[in-house]
Write a structure and sequence with these properties.
This protein has 19 helices and 9 strands. With about 425 residues, the protein is an alpha/beta fold. The protein has 3 domains: about 210 residues, 3-Layer(aba) Sandwich (Rossmann fold), CATH 3.40.50.11540; about 80 residues, Ubiquitin-like (UB roll); about 90 residues, de novo design (two linked rop proteins), CATH 1.20.1440.230. The strands form 2 sheets. Strands 6-5-9-7-8 form a 5-stranded mixed beta sheet, with no helix packed on it. A 4-stranded parallel beta sheet has the order 3-2-1-4, sandwiched between helices. It starts with about 25 loop residues before the first helix and ends with a helix. The chain binds flavin mononucleotide. Flavin mononucleotide binds next to β4.
Length: about 425
């Protein structure tokens, strides 16, 4: 059964079994080749697995695109202390809805990836941190973890190998900031979800002060296939620096929103117009956010670009989590930016003044402009505030809030100007 629609240009590695309820159960997963990769991994040394993942060129799918094998190699080689793997299933970036689908349809794909990842970094314990609102995916995952323990894929002696590997599901309370890796570690420890200053980096002192690696759900799911088929196999897709396939979640003004898995480097215009069905009848694409609300907006003129890390940077934006938000010519850009910035103001943990004050101040100005009471000076102030928010705080939530402001003023300034003094024209009495 196609889920809910499959395009012939898709290459389904991670999403092959989306829409197939049988794949959700342990029996069904085993029948589809499940846990073969774990068995193979346990016959390899941790260093060999790290090298295979390095060969694959896999880069973290949580947003930053850091090479996974390189990140794993930062962990101490001779564990004298407990190591931890943390799987980031918080998925709170606006526009992102791929990780929850991986969990809903193929929970064992993730569990297998977590067990392999933990073994590769010489950890015996993996925490899967999932946001509490993902009630259904969390229930499915909890059941699958139980099945994995009962079948001996997790526990004190995994598949009779003598290797101990545990998986614990940890439900968050629903805070965007807890998706940031160091805030997540605080949250697991029962502290406030506030990012930590780095260094020390997690590989030195992470959760409970022990060496820790944090990886996204899609990253760990990809590891399962890389171990099964080899790093070179994975490189058959993508570009030199952005390898493999990637899930892109598409929302907004297209005929077929949803999750699509394509090779990295796929042409973005073709993706939106062909795979996603393009804009609705009589409408035109005007603006696109390619990687979730925290990356700069693109105008429709820039769509002839590859869907990979380097190509998106070359047109002034980022691949991020691969969350594509399409806006046609009916979209109210000022309103959309105000909504995004308001979200970041609400989710700021408040530790850094640039973020706490900046997001709140920018929201206030954006609300005024949206209402029709803005002036040219407000745009100057917004740019000034944003420049003082980016690159100056403990984590990049502040940069995330600055991105839609700066890119929209740069590319759609006229949309802001069209609203100036509107309040006076429409409601002179209110001003007086
Ligand atoms: C404010 C903020 C929110 C984040 N939210 C998520 C998230 O929901 N899921 C995720 O995987 N990474 C998120 N990240 C990125 C993580 O900090 C981290 O880089 C990622 O989980 C590493 O995994 P990867 O190397 O597999 O990409 C967020 C970062 C920031 C600054």
């Amino acid at each position: 059964m196609a889920y809910p629609y499959q395009h012939p240009s898709e290459v389904r590695v991670l999403s092959e079994y989306f829409g197939d309820p049988e794949a959700r159960t342990l029996k069904g997963w085993e029948a589809r080749g499940g846990y073969k990769a774990l068995r193979k991994a346990l016959g390899m040394s941790p260093a060999d697995i790290v090298n295979e993942v390095k060969t694959s060129g896999l880069r973290g799918r949580g947003g930053a695109g850091f090479p996974t094998g390189v990140k794993w190699s930062f962990m101490p080689k001779e564990p004298t202390r407990q190591h931890y793997l943390v799987c980031n299933a918080d998925e709170s970036e606006p526009g992102t809805f791929k990780d929850r689908e991986l969990i809903r349809w193929t929970p064992h794909q993730l569990i297998e990836g977590c067990l392999i990842g933990a073994y590769a970094i010489r950890a015996t314990h993996c925490y899967i941190y999932i946001r509490g609102e993902f009630f259904e995916p969390a229930q499915i995952l909890a059941k699958a973890i139980e099945e994995a323990y009962a079948a001996g894929y997790a526990g004190k002696d995994v598949m009779g190998s003598g290797q101990e590997l545990h998986v614990t599901l940890h439900l968050g309370a629903g805070a965007y900031i807890c998706g940031e890796e160091t805030a997540m570690m605080n949250s697991i420890e029962g502290r406030r979800g506030e990012p930590r200053v780095k260094p020390p980096f997690p590989a030195v002192a992470g959760v409970f002060g022990k060496p820790t690696t944090i990886n996204n759900v899609e990253t760990l799911c990809s590891v399962t296939h890389i171990v099964n088929n080899g790093g070179e196999w994975y490189r058959q897709w993508g570009t030199e620096k952005s390898t493999g396939t990637k899930l892109f979640c598409v929302s907004g003004h297209v005929r077929r929103p949803g999750n699509y898995e394509v090779p990295m480097g796929f042409n973005f215009r073709e993706f939106i117009h062909d795979i996603c069905g393009g804009p609705h009848e009589g409408r035109e694409v005007r603006a696109v956010i390619p990687g979730g609300s925290s990356v700069p907006m693109m105008s429709a003129d820039d769509l002839d670009v590859g869907m990979d890390y380097e190509a998106f940077v070359s047109v002034g934006t980022m691949l991020g989590a691969g969350s594509v938000i399409v806006m046609d010519d009916t979209a109210d850009i000022v309103k959309q930016v105000r909504r995004m910035v308001e979200f970041y103001a609400h989710e700021s943990c408040g530790q850094c003044s640039q973020c706490r004050e900046g997001t709140a101040w920018a929201t206030k100005i954006l609300r005024r402009i949206e209402r029709g009471g803005g002036t040219e000076a407000d745009l100057t102030t917004l740019v000034d505030i944003s420049n003082n928010m980016a690159g100056k705080t403990i984590c990049v939530l502040s940069d995330a809030a600055a991105a839609p402001i700066l890119s929209s003023i740069g590319k759609f300034r006229g949309d802001y100007q069209a609203r100036f003094q509107l309040e006076e024209k429409l409601m002179p009495a209110r001003r007086a």
